[in-house]
Amino acid sequence: xxxxxxxxxxxxxxxxxxxxxxxxxxxxxxxxxxxxxxxxxxxxxxxxxxxxxxxxxxxxxxxxxxxxxxxxxxxxxxx
Length: 79
Fold this sequence. Notes:
By secondary structure, the chain is mainly α. It has one domain. Helices cover 61% and strands 0% of the residues. It has four helices and no strands. The radius of gyration is 11 Å and the shape is globular.
């Protein structure tokens, strides 16, 4: 049986920082919102958000908090 993944408290805190930051991009905010939605939930990341998360992870300018939220969102992508 597959393990159910959800956003950890630490990642949720990082996602909240991204949402509160004025310098966050639209894509970073979407990924952070997705990660927060999945905190204690069975919701999964959509393909569109997963694509944004992938770009954030490979970005040289994205913050550590944004990359943390992106990694969590990708882990919880719809299969």
